Amino acid sequence: MLTQSIFEFLGTMILVLLGDGVCAACTLNKTKAQGAGWVVITLAWGFAVMCGVFVAGPVSGAHLNPAVTLGFALAGLFPWAGVLPYIVAQMLGGFVGAVLVYAFYVDHFAATSDNPDGMLGCFCTMPAIEHKTVNFFSEFIATFVLVFVIMAIGTKGNTPMAGDVPVGLGAVGAFPVTALIMSLGMSLGATTGYAMNPARDLSPRCAHAILPIRGKRDSGWGYSWIPVLGPLTGGAFAAVIYLILF
Fold first, then answer.
1. What value does the CA radius of gyration of the chain take, rounded to a whole number of Å?
2. Cβ–Cβ contacts within 10 Å for residue 119, how many?
3. Distance (Å, rounded) from C-alpha 65 to C-alpha 185?
4. Span 20-26, average pLDDT
5. With contact defined as beta carbons under 8 Å apart, do 124 and 95 qualify?
6. Which residues, including other chains, have CB under 8 Å from residue 117's CB and lie 6 or more apart?
């Protein structure tokens, strides 16, 4: 479990480093990618998840997301004893990944003190229109689709079988998950920024609060519960539907 948790930490760190990294590249002043836009962000987030899966997948299964871990445990696909170690590792990985983004783009953060909302968006999500009920629903639905489709990818007919037991897609599984993340970002991400993952949102939000970023705004704590509870409940509901159907 310690080794698996270490790989969850590493995979989530890489996911957030590359994912928040593209947000910084497209947002911060004087970067070569400033203004590259939503399509670049959604593509890069998909590849960020793919890279995290390649690192952690062979050892931990590459949950990289407390909502995935909780959903898998509820569906009987992951032991409950591993839930807390995995979530702790994921949250720490998300925090370290965000700190590395700040260190990498430190000069560009300094050049963007006139855009505190943009700097916050390099770390965590905020809604395009703040309407907490709808924002919660958006995160719930997006994460439901994420977790349910990940579970469906591993079912009979979508994965090689050893008798009646699915043996998993191995590294090949990273590619459908990459496509899934890209599709979610392009289709369902434009309202809230598609956090779908407390380790991708809450941990970098904490980093934003702690780091000495010149000109930064508050860290959006009044909204911060939505990209935590929305994904967790969406992942749990996906597990229930998976058990009913599969």
1. 17
2. 27
3. 16
4. 98
5. no
6. 126, 217
Instruction: Determine the angle formed by the axes of helices 66-74 and 198-210, rounding to 10 degrees.
Output: 150
CB–CB of 196/143 below 8 Å?
Answer: yes
pLDDT value, residue 105? 98
Which residue's entry shows tokens 């590493």?
Answer: 10
Q: Is 13 exposed, middle or buried (0-12, 13-18, 19+ CB in 10 A)?
A: buried
Beta bridge partners of 156: 159
HSE (CB half, 13 Å, CA atoms) of 186? 11
Burial 173-197 (b: 16+ CB within 10 A, else e): bbeebbebbbbbbbebbebbbbbbb
What is the pTM for the complete model shown? 0.94
For the chain, the farthest-separated pair of C-alpha atoms sits apart, in whole angstroms, at 61
Are 200 and 16 in contact by the 8 Å Cβ rule? The answer is yes
* Gap between the Cα atoms of 93 and 98, Å rounded: 9
Q: Is 76 in a helix, a strand, or coil?
A: coil
Note the residue count of the chain: 246
Structural domains in the chain plus CATH codes: 2-245 (1.20.1080.10)
Q: Give the rounded percent of residues in the chain with a pLDDT score beyond 70.
A: 93
Task: For residue 245, give both structure tokens.
Answer: 């159907």
C-alpha–C-alpha distance, residues 207 and 98, integer Å:
6
Ramachandran angles phi, psi of 101, nearest 5°: -60, -45
Report how far residue 31's alpha carbon sits from residue 25's, in angstroms, rounded to the nearest whole number. Answer: 6
Confidence of residue 154 (pLDDT cuts 50, 70, 90): confident
Neighbours of 223 (CB within 10 A): 18
